[in-house]
Amino acid sequence: MYKYNFEQNSQHRIEILELSDEKCKFSFEGDLSIANAIRRVMIAEVPVMAIHFVDIIENTSPLSDEFLAQRLGLIPLVSYAADSKMYDWEADADSIDDQKTKVVFTLRQKNLNDAPLEITSQHLEPEFGQVGEMAIRPVRMFSPINGKEVGIPITRLGKNQSVHVRCHALKGFGKMHAKWTPINIATFRHEAELNFDHSQTQSLSLFEKQSIRDSCPMNVFAMDANQDLIVNAIEKCVFCEECIRCAESMKKPRLIKMQHKKNKYIFTVESAGQLKAADIVQKALIVLRKKVDEISQDLSFAQQQQQI
């Protein structure tokens, strides 16, 4: 497990419980308002790249121009290099159309065969010749059946149908449009606190202890070396109360006391592929800290003006 303190002597602390490129699960100890702010910033204010303008040069596919442009806009783009790009409103008139603000992809396909041709994100070619894992490109998608890369479906072309478009990917964030949101899921819940009434646990048989352990669908309980019932994974508790119902069936309604742990929350963050889940959390903390600093500076300036 990894622990991160916001700053020395801070009451806020993050502890990583589960980590992969796609998912980050962590506990957060601190104020509820800060927890909710972190979640909202992850959803709405972490910058990534997405296709925003589409030049339709030719389109005889089954999709209308509007539908085709929408599907292209919703393709997630790997955005590790998004920090090197400028927002289009930050750029001057001379740099709006160059690589400082955007990445351009070309899609040009025509079906000359009788069988339908599926057009996917694999057919998007960058005009600026970006290569490598860190390049801004469509997120790779693999078949769950054979593991081969298949791309994200866009449309299908019948015989002699064609599509030719230029796609302009710009930097943005979720408050502007959902296509700039880098996450699929960002939720948090209270961490549970489970306490046993030891006066009643002493009278439990081994079978009853095992029944309570097995009643939990999340495997929160376990048996120790002395065959005593213990809480083994409190972070997995989802307040289903199956353990309490099991204890009630044994005529021991006060055996387990379940309550929310004050100021401790379990976050679950799943990436949509543009960034690693851990990077989303880190960038959200940076954005939130910047906002707090800006408010602090504005308040200090306002106080100085009042003293003048």
UniProtKB/TrEMBL annotation:
<dbReference type="GO" id="GO:0006366">
    <property type="term" value="P:transcription by RNA polymerase II"/>
</dbReference>
<feature type="domain" description="DNA-directed RNA polymerase RpoA/D/Rpb3-type">
    <location>
        <begin position="23"/>
        <end position="298"/>
    </location>
</feature>
<dbReference type="InterPro" id="IPR001514">
    <property type="entry name" value="DNA-dir_RNA_pol_30-40kDasu_CS"/>
</dbReference>
<dbReference type="GO" id="GO:0003677">
    <property type="term" value="F:DNA binding"/>
</dbReference>
<comment type="similarity">
    <text>Belongs to the archaeal Rpo3/eukaryotic RPB3 RNA polymerase subunit family.</text>
</comment>
<dbReference type="GO" id="GO:0003899">
    <property type="term" value="F:DNA-directed RNA polymerase activity"/>
</dbReference>
<dbReference type="InterPro" id="IPR022842">
    <property type="entry name" value="RNAP_Rpo3/Rpb3/RPAC1"/>
</dbReference>
<protein>
    <recommendedName>
        <fullName>DNA-directed RNA polymerase RpoA/D/Rpb3-type domain-containing protein</fullName>
    </recommendedName>
</protein>
<keyword id="KW-0804">Transcription</keyword>
<dbReference type="Pfam" id="PF01000">
    <property type="entry name" value="RNA_pol_A_bac"/>
</dbReference>
<dbReference type="InterPro" id="IPR050518">
    <property type="entry name" value="Rpo3/RPB3_RNA_Pol_subunit"/>
</dbReference>
<dbReference type="InterPro" id="IPR011263">
    <property type="entry name" value="DNA-dir_RNA_pol_RpoA/D/Rpb3"/>
</dbReference>
<dbReference type="InterPro" id="IPR036643">
    <property type="entry name" value="RNApol_insert_sf"/>
</dbReference>
<dbReference type="GO" id="GO:0046983">
    <property type="term" value="F:protein dimerization activity"/>
</dbReference>
<keyword id="KW-0240">DNA-directed RNA polymerase</keyword>
<dbReference type="Pfam" id="PF01193">
    <property type="entry name" value="RNA_pol_L"/>
</dbReference>
<dbReference type="GO" id="GO:0005665">
    <property type="term" value="C:RNA polymerase II, core complex"/>
</dbReference>
<dbReference type="InterPro" id="IPR036603">
    <property type="entry name" value="RBP11-like"/>
</dbReference>
<dbReference type="InterPro" id="IPR011262">
    <property type="entry name" value="DNA-dir_RNA_pol_insert"/>
</dbReference>
